[in-house]
């Protein structure tokens, strides 16, 4: 994550001027809403949209990757998007879809991550999730998926309120991160966050621990996006700091503070069948497990 973040920051600043021009010219062509809600940092060749502006294509080649972020910051809500990932030989390529409190690798950032780790043709993708608070992460989990994420669009969502953070794949909760609710515990709930996505080269660690290298002959590597949906509290300065984009704030109501009975069944199935790595089980890495590992996801 460090490397990706630095790369992203570097791209962001060096192409900022360029991207202002690109955004300006593309806004005129596509009637889509991308520029209303996002800024991007990509060379012109690495970002494209469908004719109607509703599908976005981010690409990675040997020269550059591509990333975008929301113009707004949010504190609590439901964040959702459909993604179709790089197909074929995508070893070493990572598509990240995450929320972060700062637009670069800030040392005090809070972050909620979903990273899609590419693989050789025919080998399964994994998704890695992580949670950062005030610059500290190390809360990785890895899951396999029950479908091929390169064949079609699937929905990836994050529910965030002060009681829990839940990562969803097609409405199935794959990971639950609870708030122990004491001062300074490990739960990011103070800093508003932007939503980001980017595609980048991570062949030093991503696929089989870095053994599988990116095959640049297969470039460009392209991830596709559509149906961005946010139901959240949009951060406004000054106080009142938050303006809801929905009338009922369902994402911050009692029913969103814990899984429903149906979600618990799905979550149990995920726990039994799809978990590849869980930092809470890694006692070699954490002889004393982080405290949140003792919280029940069922509560
Ligand atoms: C996207 O931009 C439009 C136009 O500015 C705005 O009305 C809408 O609320 C924005 N959506 C989000 C999710 O920020
Ligand atoms: C957050 O991190 C910064 C820099 O590492 C540190 O100085 C600060 O005390 C931390 N804040 C809290 C509330 O832990
Ligand atoms: C945390 O504890 C306080 C005091 O007991 C309570 O008012 C608040 O609702 C709790 N918050 C969560 C997220 O459980
Ligand atoms: C890639 O495929 C290999 C072989 O099936 C598997 O061991 C590995 O977990 C897969 N994913 C990643 C990200 O390495």
- How is the largest sheet built, in terms of strand order? 1-4-13-6-7-8-9-16
Order of helices and strands: HHHEEEEEEEEEEEEEEEHE
Could you estimate the helical fraction of the residues in percent? 10-25%
Query: What's the CATH topology name?
Result: Jelly Rolls
Rg measurement, Å: 19 Å
The kinds of small molecule bound in this structure are: 2-acetamido-2-deoxy-beta-D-glucopyranose
EC number: 2.4.1.207
Family: Belongs to the glycosyl hydrolase 16 family.
Protein name: Xyloglucan endotransglucosylase/hydrolase
Function: Catalyzes xyloglucan endohydrolysis (XEH) and/or endotransglycosylation (XET). Cleaves and religates xyloglucan polymers, an essential constituent of the primary cell wall, and thereby participates in cell wall construction of growing tissues.
């Amino acid at each position: 994550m460090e490397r990706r973040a630095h790369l992203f920051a570097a791209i962001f600043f060096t192409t900022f001027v360029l991207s202002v021009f690109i955004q300006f010219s593309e806004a005129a062509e596509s009637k889509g809403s991308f520029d209303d809600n996002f800024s991007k940092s990509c060379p012109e060749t690495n970002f494209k949209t469908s004719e109607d502006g509703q599908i976005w294509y981010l690409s990675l080649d040997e020269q550059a990757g591509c990333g975008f972020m929301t113009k707004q910051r949010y504190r609590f809500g439901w964040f959702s998007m459909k993604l179709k990932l790089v197909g074929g030989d995508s070893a070493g390529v990572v598509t990240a879809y995450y929320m972060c409190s700062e637009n670069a690798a800030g040392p005090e950032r809070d972050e909620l991550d979903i990273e899609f780790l590419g693989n050789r043709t025919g080998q399964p993708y994994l998704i890695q999730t992580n949670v950062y608070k005030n610059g500290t992460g190390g809360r990785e989990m890895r899951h396999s998926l029950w479908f091929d994420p390169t064949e079609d669009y699937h929905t990836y969502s994050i529910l965030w309120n002060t009681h829990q953070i839940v990562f969803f794949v097609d409405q199935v909760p794959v990971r639950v991160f609870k708030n122990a609710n004491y001062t300074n515990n490990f739960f990011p709930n103070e800093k508003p966050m932007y939503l980001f996505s980017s595609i980048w080269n991570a062949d030093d660690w991503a696929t089989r621990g870095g053994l599988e290298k990116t095959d640049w002959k297969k470039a460009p590597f392209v991830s596709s996006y559509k149906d961005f949906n946010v139901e959240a509290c949009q951060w406004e300065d000054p106080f009142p700091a938050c303006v809801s984009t929905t009338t009922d704030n369902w994402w911050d109501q009692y029913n969103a503070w814990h899984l429903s009975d149906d979600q618990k069944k799905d979550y149990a199935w995920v726990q039994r069948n799809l978990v590849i790595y869980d930092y809470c089980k890694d006692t070699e890495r954490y002889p004393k497990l982080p405290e949140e590992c003792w919280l029940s996801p069922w509560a």
